[in-house]
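Deliverable D4.2, example record:
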Amino acid sequence: MRTLATTLFALTALPLVAQAQPVVDGNLNDAQYTTIATGGSGTSFGAAINVAEIKYYVDQPNSRLYIGVVGILDTGSNNGIGLWLGTDAQSGVAAGSALGVNGNGHYMSGNSGANTNFRSDFEVDYMFAVNPGSSANAYLDAARRWGGTTGSYIGNSGGANGTPATGTGPVGGSITFAFDNGGGTKGLEISMPLSELGATTSSAITAFAVVVSQSAYFSDDTVPGAPPVAVKGLDGPVPFGIQASPGFDADFSTLGGGPYNSGSASLPVELVSFSGLGTTSGARLSWTTASETNNAGFYVEQQNGSGWNTVSSLVAGRGTTTERSDYAYTVNGLTAGSYTFRLRQVDTDGSVHYSPNATVEVGVDGEARLTLLGQRAVRIETNDAAAMTLRVVDVLGRVVATRSVSVDGTTVVELPGLAAGAYVVRVDGDRFAGSKTLVVQ
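Output generated by the structure prediction step:
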């Protein structure tokens, strides 16, 4: 589902909220990452520097983007790796327009203003440059191209061995990164707030990576894309069949061998909740999505030691929708004890993503749970049939809404018409009681 799905640097679905965040250490082998673009077949800068893949992950609860480029740096030069990002939430530099700004770091300055006319084939809102400074280091610069053209130096992943560094981006957000020059699945890894891009979890993002010199001379090593080889007589002294660099003022909007962008897809929309409640002999699982894109559906998985077993058939998703969707599934035949479950969400293109875990105590009587679904609804779960009264109380102790609710499993109660402010949502019954604080903005 590309709602729980997304894009970043490539046309791919992104994950449901994952169980943990990747460790920012320059090794992009964390299970949460999705590869969104590949390439890196160019050789014009030699074998000591390259880019091969772009990977990403979105931490929904914290609204942070994890993005990385698998590649290596040539520690004997100032050549570096450029990473360009665009989002549909902003209007930065249009495709085919000059991207260089004198005063920004590394290649982004356009050779100190002499060669600022390098161009992309997609709208760019944010840029990175990482370079070794002719040593075993990894210096990271960032530049915004939406709401201004400011740049900032983020820091140095000293030793280029995966040591993380943290700095402030040009929009004011905290950016953590690391570079590991060890090859394989290693390279540049960045964690940044979506606000640095001017994006939200309902935005779409596109990306591109390239090997480039400090003077903004662009190589043929790109992700994605494959710049054409030289043709003798048209490409100067370069022999026929030899890879040629796009060079100064490279225009990727017209250069053959593209596209030079990953395409776009929706960033994952928040999985509002995933929870479970034990019955005397089973587990009743409930989950809610804020919206869905290309969502085929969900499978419920139960932890079995270090592995997972599928314990449901496909719970059909809603395909593509911008409306809230509520789901439930009951796992029966369980003895008393503690059980852990997760969702395996499947896109229509076969991509798979996993939810956080939910732990359920089975065999406990008289249990109830309240879950807020945004600012206008609450889900009530019980492990036995019950009649309950729901009250919404404001900060002055006044009851502003009352509902009589019959619950047998899971019930969602809408709470329309609440003014901005803080409330306590409380449910009471013969054997069940619970409350949650609700803030309406």
